[in-house]
Every structure is written in structure tokens, then in C-alpha cells.
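Q: What structure does this chain adopt?
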Amino acid sequence: MRAPSILNGRRVGVRRLVLPLVCLVSLSAAATDQQCLRRAQPTEPRVPRDVELPEYLKDTVADFARFAGRESIPVQGYGFVIGLDGTGTRVVPPGVRQEILAMMQRHKVPDPESLLASLDTAVVSVGGLLPPGAVEGEAFDLDVRVLPNTETTSLEGGFLLECDLTRVVAGRGGEVRSERRATGRGSIFVSPFTVQGASDIDPRIGRVLGGGRALSARQFRLVLLVPSVRTADQLVRLINARFPGAAKGTRDAGRVDLEVPAPYRDEKTDFLDLVGAVYLREVPDVRDARIGLLLQTLEAGEDLDRVATCLEAFGPVVLPRLRKLVDHPRASVRFYVGRILARLQDGEAVHVLEPIALDGGSEFQEEAVRALGRLRNGLGLAVLARALDAKNARVRIAAWRAMRRVGPETGVVRIFEDKFVLSAVPTKGEPFVYVSRSLRPHLAVFGDVRVRPPVVAETRRVAATASPGAERLVLITRRGERDVAIEATLEVLDLVEKMASPFGMEKGGPPQGLDLGYGDVVGLLYKLAKKGALGGQIVLEPLEYRVAGDRPIARPISIEEP
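A:
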């Protein structure tokens, strides 16, 4: 079993009760047997450790229990895609047809038989991972694939109608379906970026970013290493003292249910780490001695991340003593002090983290920016705005995202319904275009990014041309049997708006937009960048790969998949 991440490396062994030799040689005497069995039981039912913990990690929640419910749940189903411009199929496997028709009827899709007979539609398989600790309605990404032995050639431009997703359970006869756990819906993003080892993209595979929706909440649980009503009650009381309403006892003496508080919905791993670090000794003198030991270890620069988490788990009570370290000579100590202050919503965090967040040579620059984003009162916004000019693109992205935590509409130019969000981010640094690849589709233009003529660039669904010296760009897309053309300025913001806006044609008038989706916009920008015609690089959101129980590991940002 794995302990929570705050105790990585600790393995919990299970004690085997071995009868003393005297019992084995006295089986003929019942009274002696009973006496020996009683002596064989441990006086204190504590599970021994294979690895001794440091003193500051003893007597915490993680010393008495392990976390359950940290795994993602696979969900899958069949879906129906529309808007494929003739790249779909009329072929629907017999075993799937009735399921699709029933689903379309439940979701009140008009004229389902006619849709199934159109080449602008396709039946697809849909799958995703329901995240641990999800609340009702929480979004997650979906993978969409063309069904085998059908004629669909591309999912580009497609829209997945609402579909049902069920949990996948391994049974004796193979995989079987259980209850409905989520729904799926949204625009399909066919990534234009090649994957390592592939020569080209496969347009029959796409993603619906944030298209999954959890139908019910999933709770984390604490499973006591030694079931005890008294210990369970103590855990509930102490956890709720730090996070009101987060813990709930059950009839099972070995289980405590956890609910992630709203401020930690985007930092569930942090919440679990903090719960695991809650100290169970309630005597004030003992608590003060523990805080003193943690501060001493922090000053020594040892095990900084875990020690900082343990201090944070105490809550505001640590602030008076922690503030004495804000001018510590060691930069790493100052950063962790500032991080604790920020997470505990103490304004002194700005004084500590500002020089680190603006120092391009600091190894903690990006994390300092993220920490300032945890200040819910907006005190860190001025520093974050200055960090938008940092040399490192990752730092600028972190600053922008941190600002959006405080003000979600920061920099938003336009929200294209059922497509994506377009933002403009002012910066004095090198301009670039940021492309999200998970959850909400978002395209952010950092600085003034323009198209450089002359250029001719095209994707499967749209082309862009500009002659030498031109001040405008011509965009052309094919819809059905005719081409639709529109002009845009050389500014990328205007180019994106023209591509994604609805047609909006008045009687006999020109179109106002090309009504293209996120994948089409990103694909054309990618082609322009490959031809050297884009006045800034494309920076991709780093994909995160999780190892069970560990923090996410971010892959490097680049224009190509590494």
C-alpha cells in the first residue's frame, strides 16, 4: 500500500502474530492455550514501521491512516458526432445502432434516423478518466475515436452530442459496464502537433477538452491502519478544526470520509498532504514544541517541502513565529516561508515572494508566482502583473494563470460558445501564442503577434494567403460545394476572431466569420509558425502525467511534442 505523498518512501508493514513456543508444546491443556493466546496479542495495536520516520512526522494523521479513493475511474461509451463536412460515415455497427438511437432519444435529438444516414456525422467511441475527489459537475477531458470498419476519414470540425459514459468494471467474461457515472459533450479538438515517433497526425482521433461532466461526487477516504472508534473520532475532530466540515465519521470504525473544501478544488493533492500532516497531539506545550522543531528543521534547509507542509497544516497559529524567518539569508528558506504565508492568506507573503517572483535567475521563480496566485484577496496582483514581463515563458504563463485565479475574466477578449476562450495578455517580453491542451480550450496571445507576409498556409479545412507587402490576410474555407472567403488584418487576435466567429451573413452580404473551431484555429497558426510567418512562437500547455499518489509531473513546453 502507498502512504500519502507527504510520507513518500515510508512502507507500512503488517505484524504477524506468532504463538510462543510454550503454546505449541502445550496444546493438550486448554487453559494453557488460552493463556498463551492472550499473551500473543499486542498490548497496543499499532502497526510497526519498516522505515523509522523523522520526529516531526510522527503522530500525524498519516501515521495512523492511509488515503483511499485517489485513483481515477475509467468511463466509456458511444457518442454521435455532427458537423463533419462529408468526412463521416453512414455505417453504424448493428450492435451500436440501437444504443445510439436510444441515447439520442433520451437527449431529445431531432430526427435521429436522418442524422445517422448523413456523411456529415459519425458514431465514435468516447472514453475518459473520472478524476479522484471530483464534485458533481466537475469537468474532465475525453478521448474520441472513430469506430473500426467505418468510413469516417476525419473528426476535424466535429461536435460531440451529449452522450452517456459508464464505469468500466473488469468481470470474469471481460470488461462489463456498470452504472452511468458521467456525460460527455463538446467540440472535438484534433491536435495538429505530431506525437513522438509519428510522421503525421491521425484526424480520426481527437479530444473534447473538458467535455466530460461527473454526475455525482467522489469522496476521498481515510482508512485507519488499526480500526478504532476513538481514533476515528479524534481524526474527524482535528481535521474539521483545521478544515471545517471536511471530515465525516462513518459506522465503520476504520473509515473517515473526506470532502475537499472549495478553496482546494484545484489543489486536491495539496489538501491531502495537509490532512496527512495534521498533528494529533492536542496538548498546547507539545504542539508548540512540534512547531519549534519544524521551524528549526526549516532553518537548517532540510526536507523543505514536507516540513513546509507540516507547518502549513497547523494553520494560522504558526504565523507569529514564521514571520521571524521572512529575512532568512537562505533563498530556499525564504521561498518556503513565503509559500506558507501565501497559502495561509497572510499579506506578508507579498514582501517575501516579490523579489523571488521577479528574479529571472531564481530556481523558485515560477513557484513563487504560483504561490502569489494563492492569495485570494488580490494582494499579489501588482507583482503578478510585473511577472508578465519575465524572460521565461513558463513564468509569464504562470503569472497570467495566477491572475485569472483572482479575476477569471482577466485578459479575456471573447468567449466563443462551445468552442474556446480567446485572451490577450500584455507583456514586454518576447511575444508568443499559448495553446491549452486540457480542460477548457483557451488560446492566449502574449504581446503583439502578427502574420508576416508573404505567406500561403493551409490545413485540411482552411487556407490563408497574403501577398508581399499586403496589410490584410485572405482566409478561405470550403463548406459543402462552395468556398467561403473573408479578410482579416495581420494581427493574430483579429485573425482568430474572424476564423471562429459565426458566419453572420445578412441578405446578400459578406460573411462576418468562418465559424471554425479550436482545432482549425490552432492548426492554421501552427502551419503559419512552421513557415516562419508568425511573429512569435507557439507555446503549448505542458501535459501532466501522474504516478499514483504522487504530484503531477509537467512535460516541457515546446511547439512539438517532445
